[in-house]
Amino acid sequence: ERNQRLFYKLLIDNVEELLPVVYTPTVGEACQKYGSIFRRPQGLYLSLKEKGKILQVLKNWPERSIQVVVVTDGERILGLGDLGCQGMGIPVGKLALYTALGSVRPSACLPITIDVGTNNGSLLKDEFYIGLKKKRATGQEYYEFLHEFMCAVKQNYGEKILIQFEDFANHNAFELLGRYKNTHLVFNDDIQGTAAVVLAGLVAALKQLSRNLVDQTFLFLGAGEAGTGMAELIALEMSKQGNTSVAEARKRIWLVDSKGLIVESRMESLQEFKKPWAHDHEPIEELLDAVKAIKPTVLIGSSGVGRTFTKEVIEAMTAVNEKPVIMALSNPTSQSECTAEEAYTWSQGRAIFASGSPFDPVQINGKVFVPGQANNAYIFPGLGLGLVISGAIRVHDQMLLVAAEELGGQVSGENFNKGMIYPPFSKIRDISAHIAAKVAAKAYELGVATRLPQPTDLIKYAKSCMYSPVYRNYR
Prior knowledge:
With 475 residues, this protein is α/β, with parallel strands linked by helices. 43% of the residues lie in helices and 12% in strands. The protein has 20 helices and 14 strands. Strands 8-7-6-9-10-11-14 form a 7-stranded mixed beta sheet, with helices on both faces. Strand 9 (298-301), helix 14 (311-320) and strand 10 form a beta-alpha-beta unit. Helix 10 packs across helix 11. The protein is globular, with a radius of gyration of 22 Å. The model has no long low-confidence stretch (mean pLDDT 95). The active site is at 23 (proton donor), 94 (proton acceptor).
């Protein structure tokens, strides 16, 4: 707030140290306490009371040339649940990373929180709660308000404005992405960004292990927007690599939700987005029993429930795999399915581990393991930069695949020997430029890029467009 340029200079130069302060896990705590630390608005609030006037409110924002909007309704903030208007910390934090890691100008970023009420009883009673003190709007009232918002953003900022949905509840997240992906430049980070960064980690791990993606068996704990989004992108990449149908690839991917393994006998009670993952198998309620029955090579957690990868589960994974891949992705740290230390200790140092929140290096039998962090910050800043520099008007799944492949390809053998399946964050701006170039190239290839003619060297062009926090020299 006091010195934006200096803030970004400090963040860019010390990104590995400061990322956990600007984003996970500190951002979760900041959202929980947002009402009591609020000084002045850092983003734009749109309240239900402004229905019919959203375009007018958008025009009040002082910056005119906006390129990226990150929007939340605060209903599912990380693994913390409904924080209502206090969820503003998420769009603010995400856009700080768009600037620091993807080098989009800070003035071109707009954080928005849509205030449709909250179902959090303690917030409704809190004198410091900054939002509407009413239960959440749902159904037609909610979707009419969101539709007015989507139309107003496009009318005010044009066809090329990138709208990133963030931390919406499952039922709304899939519905909104489905409704607007063919008419707007939209991207859901929880569904698509998480999926791309997880796929990148798998690409890197399997390359180092000389294993093929198409031969793996996946088991997910958690079948919400993150779990099904990851599963779908992995299936798309398997179908691309193995030259098979996506339906065939899905057969190697199994999901467990709160009621157990998703199987065909549960089809009638399943939500629509879970139905493609219902396979022919007898019902299994417990994760441990599912691991023993399915014998997965890769175990991925996105359940939002901490300590669900128990000692028995990790041991069962190690019993059927020489090098089990275990990804405990739920945020913040308290919700992680297991810690890095638990994964390495219970697998006798054989697990290839990544988490959503940062963990310290672990020493087992004299060897130091550096756990990877499957952080969406590896993907969305580069993806956003690629969309901006190409003037793209739509986001396609192929763009996510090339972004994941590029990130996975940046992991060296030296990184992997330390246990890392992601490159060090110290190189993130260079990585973002390479991802942006791949995404932009795909946008031109698919015919959705509007910035013509296409630059001959997209990496060089991406780097030339990157914001740098330096003071101009006037002498």
